[in-house]
Design goal:
The complex is a heterotrimer of chains A (264), B (263) and C (332). With 264 residues, chain A is mostly helical. In chain A, 77% of the residues lie in helices and 2% in strands. In chain A, strands 1-2 form a two-stranded antiparallel sheet. Chain B has one domain (3-261). Helices cover 76% and strands 0% of the residues of chain B. In chain B, helix 2 (21-46) packs antiparallel against helix 3. In chain C, the strands form 3 sheets. A 6-stranded mixed sheet of chain C has the order 5-6-7-3-8-9, with helices on both faces. A 4-stranded antiparallel sheet of chain C has the order 11-12-10-13, with helices on one face. A 3-stranded antiparallel sheet of chain C has the order 2-1-4, with helices on one face. Chain C has 2 domains: 6-248, Rossmann fold (3-Layer(aba) Sandwich); 252-316, Alpha-Beta Plaits (2-Layer Sandwich), CATH 3.30.70. Chain C is an alpha/beta fold. The longest helix of chain C has 18 residues, at 191-208. Chain C is globular and about 75 Å long. The chains are: A mainly alpha (264), B mainly alpha (263), C alpha/beta (332). The A-B interface holds A 24, 28, 31-32, 35, 39, 42-43, 45-47, 49-51, 54-55, 179-181, 184-185, 187-189, 191-192, 194-195, 199-201, 203-204 and B 22-23, 26, 29-30, 33-34, 37, 40-42, 44-45, 51-52, 129-130, 170-171, 174, 177-178, 181, 184-185, 190-191, 195-197.
Chain lengths: 264, 263, 332
Amino acid sequence: MLHYVKLIGQFFKISAQAEMAYRANFFIRLLYSVLNVVTGLFSLVVIFNQVESIKGWDLPSALVLLGIYLLLGALRSLFMGPSLESVAGMDGEIWTGTFDFTLLRPVNKQFMISFRYWRIFALIDLIFALGVLVYAIVLLGTPLSILTLIRFLATLTAGILLLYAALLAFSSLVFWNSGFLFTWVINDLFQLARYPVGIYPNWLRLILTWIIPVGLMTTIPAQALAGTLSPGLLILTIFFSVGAFIGASLLFRRGLQKYSSASS
Amino acid sequence: MNHRGGWALIKNTWQSWLQHRGFFFLLAFGWMLPLLVYMLVWSAAAGEGSLEGFSQETLAGYYLILILSNQLTYPITNWTVGDNIRIGQISRWLIQPMSPLYHALSAEIAGKVVFMVFSIPVTGLLALLIHPTVDINITNVILFLPALLFAWVLRFFWGYWLALLAFWATRADSLLALQDTFIFLLGGHLAPIHLLPDWLQPIARLLPFRYMSAFPVEILTGQVTGQETLLGFIALTIWLTLAILLYRFVWQRGIRHYEAVGG
Amino acid sequence: MNKPIIQVQHLTKTYRVPEKLPGLGASVRSLFKPQYRDVEAVRDISFEVHSGEMVGLIGPNGAGKTTTLKMLSGLLYPTSGQATVAGFTPWERHTNYLRRISMVMGNRSAMNWDIPPMDSFRVLSQIYRVPEKTYLHILDELIALMDMEALMKKPVRNLSLGERMKCELVAGLLYQPDILFLDEPTLGLDVAMQRRIRQFLKSYNTDHAVTVILTSHYMADVTALCPRVMLIHHGRLVFDGKLQSLAEKLAPFKLIKLQFSTPVIDFENYLQQFPDVESLPRQDEHYSLRVARSEVAKVTAQLLSQLPIADLSVEDPPIEAVIDQIYEVGSV
């Protein structure tokens, strides 16, 4: 609805104002962004200095995956992370007892806690991510057909949806245990998405595909771009991401119900 | 030096940290994960063969021990130094009969015990799943212990003097993040030192970061020859001396500045 | 008679609280078979409030006031019972319902602490869909009423408690709600600020016909603002009516204060003849007597006729003292 789009614009504007008030923050953020990209690239250089490929993944394809990882990370830092942490994180609304106010706003609650706060300096991360991705695609050398591009965008969207679902689900757990920082758990687990899920041992690959789908978020879009993704897996991933989104939303709703039954 | 007070402080800190153990387990988990990722990556890279003498199993062994030793050498309290300076906590500590160093040390020790409560079982479980191999002999164990202790002390003081720059600049904790990054890249986390590119190896052996993390593990897993170990200890001592000198220098200047500015 | 805007019928809220017994044995047992305790926070409360009324909800800590307020605002589901507020069931939290109510709490802040109040207000006006012109007009009015012009550009974390409270009220009123729930709005404020807030609330209620339900520790708030009070005690509604009637009911006596024109010796002995008269501590020349209401006329007449009285007044006991008695003793 148009109203919600306008609200996102307002939220973005207010967050931008607040962030730009502190100039020192910009340089610190820039430093962290640079460190983030440099360590990612450097890691690949070191690894592929020792081997040509790992389980079928060579430097260019691993670089594509890194680009996707950085892209998802940038989106998380841009709004998903800050918004959800404002409720479920340290000193968040559940922790400090101010969630009641949010609950009383005449807006869809899931929308509110997902889009409310923005870190605009994460746009730097986004730019770096796109840079790495474009460079990686060039390095990969495979011809980019329209079909490949469509597959890539579809799986990338699925990856973003999966990331959001995972963040939302873990954040919702705070309604059952307000003292524990569940968001830190999923942020830590997301590290596993830096590398193709295929290189992990079987038992881990299964967990990272079906239980906490961190493995799908980056590996599937990377495969789509490299042209090695089977149509079956593509369809499955898309359905799974939609299902995960619905599941996480239901969990959040259940969490709200729990909060309204039990808070004193 | 007030030893009894220090011990009481450690006991108190330990008890309150035990109450918040969920939080500290979470921290330990967060540090463990990147090392796990690279263990898995290198194991997959080595496959059935070997990389520079490392097999899947020895890589697993190296990283599992690194996970534990990293927990033990990580100086958590450095992150609170900036905050303590900002909120004036330092003033309170200055008038107590124990130096602020005692507060830091007691927190460090208490923290490490809590982390081990989590890390040892988890690492044990992983060892069952991953079948590492480690070549242990008694000489290595004897040399491992002082190397580990000094690694922690070096890592602590190096981070501490950087964190003390908060006396002058508010976001000095970004320097701690920088230190962590260097340890990741050059301290044996991203890759064991021997697997780094050839041109990088001498640099990594020169800089302090290896001695803050990887060096004790290299000794224990038999990756270094007698001569290399000796050279390593010499480098470690030089960096440690420098770290302590820098700490004293920055601390004295910092206190003077702090008192002049009015806290 | 118009229909009441708030109708509450047999509202009950019972919490299940996990029981934590001390000792190792009990802790282990609770791991396998957790024990729960039922806490009846609100028991079978019924009342009606008409549009424009300003009602005080009073009672000791833990009596159930905040729980009642939370159910009426929609934050909590009741265990049983019904409530209709402005035609809605509050805990369904319909968007249209939420737009018509406002909750302001004295001990918690709805504001974003990192940005100036102006920015928080703007975002809220968007969330509540207040048209631009209306928003600016209302904002001007509120800022002028509370004399807040200087605060607008300062970040919230730099404001004093009183200044922050003013901002909370603006945030709560800028979308012109029909119903205002106030939970301890003057908590922690200095006396002058309390008075200003009270004045503001009174005139706002008069000018805009907002229905207000207010809880407060400070009897001064209630006496100044609420012609009607509801006393909640151990979760039950034990009184609903004029504050004055409550005082009379709880403390069926009055105070007679007198000064003598010439000193009277043995005044204590003289008082022995009155069984229902109690002498209170004397302040210089001012004597105070506590007299049963039914005896006041007789005692006063007798004193005036028999003793050299320079000044005599008959007063109601301070409501604060009466209510404090309930709060302290914990019983009515």
